[in-house]
Amino acid sequence: MTRKPTLLTMIGVLIGSGIAVGACSSGAGPSGGSGTSSSPAPAPSAPSSTAPRDRAYHPVIDPAKFSNRVTNRYFSLPVGTTLVYEGTRDGRPQRDEVVITKETRVIMGVRCTVVRDTVTSNGALVEKTTDWYAQSAAGDVWYFGEATGEYTNGNLTSTKGSWEAGVDTAQPGVVMKAHPRPGDSYRQEYRPGEAEDMAKVLRTTATVKVPVGRFTNVVVTNDTDPLNPDKADHKSYAPGVGLVLADRVRSGHHEHIALVERRG
User: Fold this and answer.
1) The model scores a pTM over 0.85
2) CATH of residue 181
3) Each residue of 58-87: pLDDT tens digit?
4) From CA 179, how far away is CA 182, in angstroms rounded?
5) How is 207-253 classified by DSSP, letter by letter?
């Protein structure tokens, strides 16, 4: 997908205005039931083989049927909001700050919202990414690309994974359906050989407890990447909130990140 080993994907999801949260907790994890307790999510299992690439993938994009105003209940993007996620990667602290800007960018004729994502570890810059999202008339949230950079000792070391829909055969993908159902599968992004992430909805009734509160009827997805068969991400999206929890396994590394703060 979009994300390198250290980046919170699916970046850019926010708590909507006026959402009340439950009692805070330092633990985090989804549960299949609706009880008051929840247990840590198991580490996602990576796929055993590389899926075939879909060279025929070419969605029809009608700019008149898209808006940069993203209001999907599981992936809303209120302008001016900052979301902070914290956790660990291989035991080391990691912090991800996501800012929903008032900026827009036109891609394939579609005006997209610009989201900026900064990842640090112990105060040191790890990665900076700019993402572009728009919502279809049907309510699906589409991903039109990203400009990403990895850093070491303050120096840019890689831009691998960057892509823009309509450039170099890249095509936009869906990051969240308007009405997700267990078993739904969709392509999140597509630049052959560079960005080919897929998502599958596992559950829509999970219960998740993270530092900002406890949420029910949470959508849990499993994200995979045919270009990296050992990668698998479990992500939890709360209704009216957005991404609240992410567990990732890839290239022998394990990450766990949860929503800890909302500003704006």
Assistant:
1) no
2) 2.40.360
3) 999 999 999 999 999 999 999 999 999 999
4) 10
5) EEEETTEEEEEEEEEEEE-TT-TT-EEEEEEETTTEEEEEEEEETTE
